[in-house]
Specification:
The longest helix has 18 residues. It contains nine helices and eight strands. An eight-stranded parallel sheet has the order 7-6-5-4-3-2-1-8. Helix 4 packs across helix 5. It starts with a helix and ends with a helix. It has about 220 residues and is of the alpha/beta class. Strand 3, helix 4 and strand 4 form a beta-alpha-beta unit. Bound molecules: pyridoxal-5'-phosphate (PLP). The site of pyridoxal-5'-phosphate has 14 residues, from strand 8 and helix 9.
C-alpha cells in the first residue's frame, strides 16, 4: 500500500506534468501540503522526505502540532488556509508565515494591528468566495478588487495573492478563471487554487500554489 511519502512524490510529479502541459516553467507551482487533522507522527515522514510548506485550517490545532515540529525543522513554512476569527489574530500572526484567508475589513484591521505590535509580517492572501456560497468564507467577487485596495491604502497591508475554494459540486474551471481575472485587475501575482481533486486543472488556469491534503495524507 502506498504511504504518505509515496503519495507526496506522486503529487509532485503530477504537478510537474501539469506545469509542462500548461507550458509553464518547471517549478512555477508550489505545493502546500495540507496536514489538518493529521498528527505530528503522520507529518514527520513527509517533512523528512523534503516537503517544507504546510497548510492548516485551525489556529489552535496548528499551534499544538507545529510549535513542537518546528523546533526540529526550523525552515518549515506554515500557511493558514482556514477562516480567521478576530480573537485569534494574535496567535495567527505569531505562528503563520502566510495567512491566506483575509476576507473582511475587521480581519484586515486586526491583522494589521497585530503585525505592528509583534513586528512580524506574514505574507497575506485575500480569500474570494467565487461561488458566492452563503456558508463559505471569502469576499464577494464583485467587492474583491476594492477590498484589496483598501487593505493596502487603509490598513497598510500588501496583499500578495488570492485564494479560492470552488463549490464542491461544480466544475471548478470557471471559478479558477474568475480568480485569475480578479487577480489581474487587482495586479496580484499569486493564485492559491486547486485541491486534491482538481489541482492539475487549477495549474492550467494559472495557480501558483496548490493546497493538497487527502491525496498526500489519505482520507480524513
Ligand atoms: C482541507 C483543505 C484543503 C485540502 O483539501 P483536500 O481535498 O484534502 O486536498 C485545501 N484548502 C482548504 C482551504 C482546505 O480547508
Amino acid at each position: 500500500m502506498p504511504n504518505a511519502v509515496d503519495r507526496l512524490f506522486a503529487v509532485q510529479s503530477a504537478i510537474r506534468k501539469a506545469e509542462s502541459e500548461a507550458k509553464r516553467p518547471d517549478g512555477s507551482v508550489s505545493l502546500v501540503a495540507v496536514s489538518k487533522t493529521f498528527e505530528a507522527d503522520d507529518i514527520r515522514p513527509v517533512i523528512e522526505a523534503g516537503q517544507r510548506v504546510f497548510g492548516e485550517n485551525r489556529v489552535q490545532e496548528a499551534q499544538l502540532k507545529w510549535t513542537y515540529l518546528r523546533s526540529d525543522f526550523p525552515d518549515i513554512e506554515l500557511h493558514l488556509i482556514g477562516p480567521l476569527q478576530s480573537n485569534k489574530t494574535q496567535e495567527a500572526v505569531a505562528l503563520f508565515d502566510v495567512i491566506e484567508s483575509i476576507d473582511r475589513e475587521k480581519i484586515a484591521a486586526a491583522v494589521s494591528l497585530e503585525m505592528k505590535k509583534q513586528n512580524r509580517f506574514p505574507r497575506l492572501y485575500v480569500q474570494v468566495n467565487t461561488g458566492s456560497e452563503p456558508q463559505k468564507a471569502g469576499i464577494e467577487p464583485k467587492d474583491a478588487v476594492a477590498f484589496v485596495t483598501r487593505c493596502r491604502d487603509v490598513h497598510g497591508l500588501m496583499i500578495e495573492g488570492l485564494m479560492c475554494i470552488p463549490p464542491a459540486d461544480e466544475n471548478p474551471g470557471p471559478h479558477f478563471a474568475l480568480l485569475e481575472k480578479i487577480a489581474r485587475e487587482a495586479q496580484i501575482e499569486k493564485l492559491s487554487m486547486g485541491m486534491s481533486g482538481d489541482y492539475e486543472i487549477a495549474i492550467g488556469f494559472g495557480a501558483t500554489s496548490v493546497r493538497v491534503g487527502s491525496a498526500i495524507f489519505g482520507s480524513r
